[in-house]
Design brief:
The chain is of the alpha+beta class. It is about 45% helix and about 10% strand. It is built from 17 helices and 10 strands. The strands form 3 sheets. The chain has a 5-stranded mixed sheet with strand order 1-2-8-5-3. The chain has a 3-stranded antiparallel sheet with strand order 4-10-9.
Length: about 450
């Protein structure tokens, strides 16, 4: 493959990005591509090295895209630009969010967050997930056909995270409106999520923020800050049994109490960041089931395979195709010199298909033994804190759909016949997922 002729950010690759990525993972796990000067990291071992080394690879440029220097005031020389990046984070998008932070700031923020998403709270939330799954399925299954993202996954993921946080139901419509979604009526009537399936929607959840590249809109989650700051102040006065109260009362590891705005930033990320990726995970899982009758029959016959099925979906076609880092110290990775200031495209999607780690990596194996070695949710200090929640939402959705239907099929009017399917994908090189998925159901008697 002539990789030098391919721009990895080209829209022509959005439908099937894996041809180039699979080739690189197998042959050039660290590759300096010529179009943007970005170091593409596609090998599993090399990706783990980057994720474990925040002292060498900063997360500050996580969602900037291939050219962070278009936003920064200058490009310094030298083999260590750590101080420069830390002094100029204000120029970079989402600079006040935990996902772009490095230690020690990240350490304090993550300690605050992880002390709140406890096994006890997640177990309580899972009980709600089972009820919400059936409630949402009650709305779509009698129709026989549904567009999964709009009619099910988007309202479902919103309501699940709202329950976890303790966001009052009467505030749901207002928060949806802030995100640019169509405002629903009561739950179970008009569903949210029809505003945008493309890169503008994705940017809020980790994709390149085009507004930031243009010089504005650096922190797209600011729209939630006032709301959550007010709620945090309220919870300090009137505690409840929810995550927001836990956040309101929590302290940093040094014993100091965070300001409401500090907690509001974390709450905003927790509320918004996971929804879009979980929607795509659910859609991809159901698309695979609908396209493979033999696999569907296997899952129906043995429900214990569903958790591993979800992991294999994450490994083969996870929603995060890649994210950015910047080398802040001159180093070497996979035998390739990496000068300080090099932008890194760390491809989770490619690392999950590295043949050095996974046998026949492009083959979907529902019984794959080492599937949990994937890095679909990151690794190390930046492992997604919402990963258990996303896994539960996807697993319970699949289990209940299999239990409540006798068949799940791809709607041919929307996507064409088997062997000649048509799917629209997100228009971004950082995410991979179906923009719309219409399914037909046969409900069990």
């Amino acid at each position: 493959m002539d990789t030098d002729s391919i721009d990895y950010t080209s829209p022509s690759r959005f439908t099937n990005p894996y041809a180039m990525l699979d080739y690189l993972a197998a042959n050039q796990p660290v590759y300096i591509e010529p179009h943007h000067g970005v170091a593409m990291v596609t090998g599993h071992e090399e990706a783990i090295t980057v994720l474990r080394s925040p002292d060498k690879f900063t997360s500050a440029t996580l969602i900037v895209g291939p050219d962070p220097w278009a936003l920064l005031p200058e490009r310094p020389k030298g083999d260590d630009i750590t101080a420069f990046i830390n002094a100029n984070r204000e120029f970079l998008p989402q600079n006040d969010q935990i996902v772009t932070a490095d230690p020690p700031v990240h350490t304090a923020q993550r300690a605050l967050l992880m002390g709140l998403i406890t096994p006890k709270r997640l177990k309580e939330n899972e009980e709600f997930i089972w009820r919400m799954t059936d409630r949402q399925l009650d709305a779509i299954l009698p129709l026989g056909t549904a567009e999964i993202n709009l009619d099910y996954a988007q309202p479902y993921t919103l309501l699940v995270i709202a329950d976890l946080l303790g966001v009052p139901e009467e505030d749901h419509a207002m928060l949806l409106a802030k995100r640019g979604f169509r405002v629903p009526g009561a739950m179970g009537s008009e569903m949210p999520g029809g505003a945008d399936h493309g890169p503008a929607a994705a940017s809020e959840h980790g994709g390149p923020d085009n507004r930031a590249q243009a010089g504005g809109g650096h922190n797209t989650l600011e729209i939630f800050y006032d709301y959550f700051s007010e709620k945090i102040a309220e919870k300090r006065q009137n505690p409840a049994n929810d995550v927001l109260t836990g956040m309101a009362l929590a302290r940093f590891p040094d014993g100091t109490q965070p300001e409401p705005i500090e907690v509001a930033r974390i709450a905003s990320n927790l509320f918004a960041a996971g929804q879009e990726t979980t929607v795509r995970l659910i859609a991809t899982a159901l698309q695979i089931i609908g396209d493979d009758p033999e696999l569907q029959a296997q899952l129906r016959a043995d429900k214990s395979l569903v958790p591993r099925f979800i992991e294999e979906v994450l490994r083969t076609e996870g929603p995060i195709l890649g994210e950015y880092r910047m080398a802040i110290k001159t180093t070497e990775l996979g035998g390739v010199p990496i000068p300080a200031g090099t932008q890194i495209f760390l491809s989770n999607g490619a690392a999950n298909r590295d043949p050095r780690q996974f046998e026949n990596p492009a083959e979907f194996r529902v019984t794959r033994e080492n599937v949990r070695r994937h890095v679909a949710f990151g690794h190390g200090i930046h492992t997604c804190p919402g990963a258990p929640l996303a896994r539960s939402e996807a697993r319970i959705t699949v289990e209940r759909l299999l239990e409540r239907t006798s068949n799940i099929a791809i709607n041919e009017a929307a996507h064409g016949p088997a062997g000649n399917r048509r799917y629209d994908y997100l228009q971004t090189h950082m995410f991979h997922g179906i923009a719309t998925l219409t399914l037909d159901f046969k409900v069990r008697d």
